[in-house]
């Protein structure tokens, strides 16, 4: 069994004014909130975006666990489309004291490197800051944060920093090396 050194970086944004907006890529790109939680669609996005970059923590969840996760008040999924085809997504996870975590963010492999990610992240951060507007009883957002790691895409960290996120924690650990799961079992 071989091991790898995994570095995880945690980044945060403390004010909506810290957001540095990315350019809008073009009229063929649209971003919409998936207003009806769908475990099948969310699992498709998760596996398709993360299959080549070692996203595995949710692959073993049952449908009921997906329903539970997605059905919590304030959890939102925002999806980027190119000409109606899903290109990537942002999942927001509300936490205590007005904190919102960008739990998952990324693009399907064929859509990376085309300036869609900066735009999607901009709109995802906007959605995180305005979460209380859509969820009555939710505290106003006071902080947006996320984490990325050395197994994520090569432009992920740069995108976060360009959007105005600030690094607040770095952790390094040894982890068992595993093959990427691909977008579906056996792929």
TrEMBL record:
SUPFAM superfamilies: Acyl-CoA N-acyltransferases (Nat). Pfam families: Acetyltransf_1. This is GNAT family N-acetyltransferase. Signal peptide: none annotated. InterPro entries: Acyl_CoA_acyltransferase, GNAT_dom. Residues 29-187 form the N-acetyltransferase domain.
